[in-house]
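The authors assume throughout that readers already know how a fold can be written as discrete tokens. For illustration, here is how one protein appears when written out as sequence plus structure tokens:
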Amino acid sequence: MSTVIRKSLLQLVFSGAFMKRWNDRLRPMELMEVDKQAHKMIVAWMLLSRVTQGMDQEARLTLVDETIEGGLFDYFYRLVITDIKPPVFYKIKANREDYQKLTQWVLPQLKPRLAPLGEAFWARMTDALMEPEEKTLSRRILMAAHLYASYSEFRLLKPINPHDEELPEIEHSFISRLQGLTDIPGVSDLLLERGEFCRFAARAGQLRFQKRWSQTPRVPETTVLGHMFLVAAYSWFFSVEAGACRARRHNNFFCGLFHDLPELLTRDIISPVKSSDAAIGELIKQYENQELESKILGPLRGGGCADLSERLSYLLGLSVGSEFIATVVEEGDIRHVTEEDLRGAKNRDELDPKDGPLLKMCDRLAAFIEADTALRNGINNEQLHQARWRIRQMYEHRPEVMGIQVGALLADFD
């Protein structure tokens, strides 16, 4: 299988780590586009868990597919128009003709990097972005998630901008637009800050406060929250390239989106520490699992969100020991399977498959790009050189993972 994912696409996804949000306001910290996108898609996952209850498998898979892909379409669009202030953008969007003119300018900016994904992908993206109205259920879920994630950022900067005359109007806009979406199950809980559902959404957003590689100077600095979005997006594109069934694509995306969730409780423990000794690695894993149970999974179950707790447990691989183990669900049991199984008979929606090795590859690839980008930006640091070299070495003797030519992809960065 040839690799259609190119260096340019990976760098495009990563570019949101450079993009500052609310950069015309006093901020307690830099708020970055990639972090907001991660928070948005976490909330979208939560809303999907409510909306899809009682749906048949086909309807559920279709809705989740549209929501993930629509979120990626929106992200690419925002990477191009990020310097347009939201009030101006929403005025443009309110006029269909003006919005379509803007979109017709945006699409050619993206095409060189996205065209290798195929004509079908490009056609779906074009159709989605040319339509300004939020009519479909997937678009409305994404809008609700976007508003909540942006409002969460707003509330961080509101206390330190007491004399900003525009803030009351901005806050009213967030609240009124969310109120217009309360027919979507879960939105009322978010708006009213009610129960464990909202508490989990708020806590997930706190991962933007945790810097990765905290003792290593980098440009740009990435957060745990932003890194999770990078891994999720890479997992999605590589899953599509690997021919994954829809359920497998969804699981890979959301596993990438949550794979570092335990760091909300333990902070970012760097890989050399985890791998320095088997006993230390096991101790850290046990502590992470205990904290997850007591601080997140247990409260979710006790607060009427058992579905979220159960799904997170599966995505994080708690019953098999790691999120990076390939699994399926057969006859109600979670079972470890091989890569060959997933590329063959187990690649079926009804088995709820999840790629461990592909996710691990995407996690390492995101770390590689973080290190490589910092080095290219002039940060000459031994830790970054070592990280880039170490990841290259991992795929020197095993250049292919799930049909993806990782070695050839990494060679593009020479």
Observations:
- The two ends are 22 Å apart (CA to CA).
- The longest strand covers residues 327-330.
- The chain has 20 helices and six strands.
